[in-house]
């Protein structure tokens, strides 16, 4: 049976293809139909793996960089997930509080890549969050969780990012180890309990 994997700060989550099919049939917006206490493990996996807050990405070569991106054994490509961790539905799903320093920040993690590097300043300079048609913002915080792989957590101060319900989409882009990941979040889909959840 096919399985999808995502490494989060809570640990490794596994979603089988069969579970994904059942969730598709049940609808993808379960987070707005029932309280978190009633979410199944399969639904939680879906929210952090394939939802408006979670985007599958592929790391593309972008030139030399600080540190080194290593291919995991058995993987045929550099693939991972970008997760908007500060969004309330994601917090309700993973039940792992963000580090205290990330208060008043939009927190976005890049999961699924093995990365080595000690200097985090280049990671700050090489990441941006940009609402469509507006100025880009660099993170002022970056942390690495080296557990079973690497989870890079980026913090963008909320008072520096000009984003709101009127915006259509937000671009997230990051470079590390000579590679780049890039994805867009569609804001109209990122609603939770009737409000934009970022």
Uncertain residue ranges? 1-7, 12-26, 65-76
Domains (count): 1
Dominant shape? globular
How far is the N terminus from the C terminus? 34 Å
Tally of extended strands? 14
Beta-strand proportion: 35-45%
The SS-based structural class is alpha+beta
> Mean pLDDT, nearest integer?
81
Helix content: 10-25%
Rounded to the nearest angstrom, the radius of gyration is 16 Å
Order of helices and strands: EEHHEEEEHEHEEEEEEE
Largest sheet: 6 strands, antiparallel
| Tally of helical runs | 4
What would you note in describing this structure?
This protein has 198 residues and is an alpha+beta fold. The chain has one domain. The chain is 16% helix and 39% strand. The protein contains four helices and 14 strands. Strands 3, 5, 6, 7, 9 and 10 form a six-stranded antiparallel β-sheet that branches. It has a four-stranded antiparallel β-sheet with strand order 4-12-11-8. Helix 2 (41-49) packs across helix 3 (88-94). The protein starts with a strand and ends with a strand.
């Amino acid at each position: 049976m096919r399985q999808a994997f995502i490494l989060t700060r809570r640990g490794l989550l596994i979603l089988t293809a069969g579970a994904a099919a059942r969730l598709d049939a049940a609808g993808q917006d379960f987070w707005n139909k029932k309280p978190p206490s009633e979410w199944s493990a399969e639904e939680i996996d879906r929210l952090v793996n394939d939802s408006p807050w979670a985007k599958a990405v592929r790391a593309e070569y972008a030139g030399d960089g600080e540190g080194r991106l290593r291919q995991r054994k058995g993987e045929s490509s550099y693939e991972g997930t970008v997760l908007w961790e500060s969004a309330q539905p994601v917090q309700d799903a993973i039940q792992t509080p963000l580090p205290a320093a990330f208060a008043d920040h939009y927190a976005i993690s890049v999961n699924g890549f093995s990365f080595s590097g000690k200097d985090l300043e280049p990671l700050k300079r090489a990441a941006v969050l940009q609402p469509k048609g507006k100025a880009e913002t660099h993170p002022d915080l970056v942390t690495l969780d080296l557990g079973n792989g690497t989870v890079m957590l980026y913090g963008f101060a909320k008072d520096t990012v000009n984003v709101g319900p009127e915006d259509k989409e937000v671009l997230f882009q990051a470079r590390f180890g000579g590679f780049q990941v890039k994805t867009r979040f569609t804001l109209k889909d990122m609603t939770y309990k009737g409000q934009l959840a970022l």
